[in-house]
Amino acid sequence: MKLSEVKKHLQHLEQLDFYLPNSQKVESHFHVTEVGMITKNFIDCGGVVRNEKVVNFQLWSADDVDHRLEPKKLMHIIELSENVLGIEDLEIEVEYQAETIGKYGLDFQDNHFVLTTKQTDCLAKDNCGIPAEKPKVKLSELQAQMNSCCDPSSGCC
What we know:
Elements lengths: L2 H8 L7 E2 L10 E14 L5 E13 L9 H15 L6 E6 L3 E9 L2 E5 L8 H4 L10 H11 L8
Parallel strand pairs: 1-6, 3-4
Antiparallel strand pairs: 2-3, 4-5, 5-6
């Protein structure tokens, strides 16, 4: 989800809720402690130089259970970040503390924000010899191969 989409949803919300990928609700007293733009310059395993930018939200659950972040306040923080930091309309990445800091994507469903899982991946599969997709094997053929290799007349022994 891009920053412009977050802003569009915030305009229509009365309360701000985030849910984890496992459908567990983030505590109502969370804070957004950071809104920023992260630039990542790197070389993938195939030697290609890459540049990625995301808008970063950091969610934090404080001990202060009496306060709640309102949609208008988050909108103000986002607009301030756009004006002061020059944040662009990029994809959102959310940091949230679990066992360690987790990185999530962001979606919007049923009037609340949902943190979505992110996966690592090889960006240079063609240079690493990794097939584009796993070969599909019919289980019936696999069973036939297993049976033939164990047959005393198969010549495998």
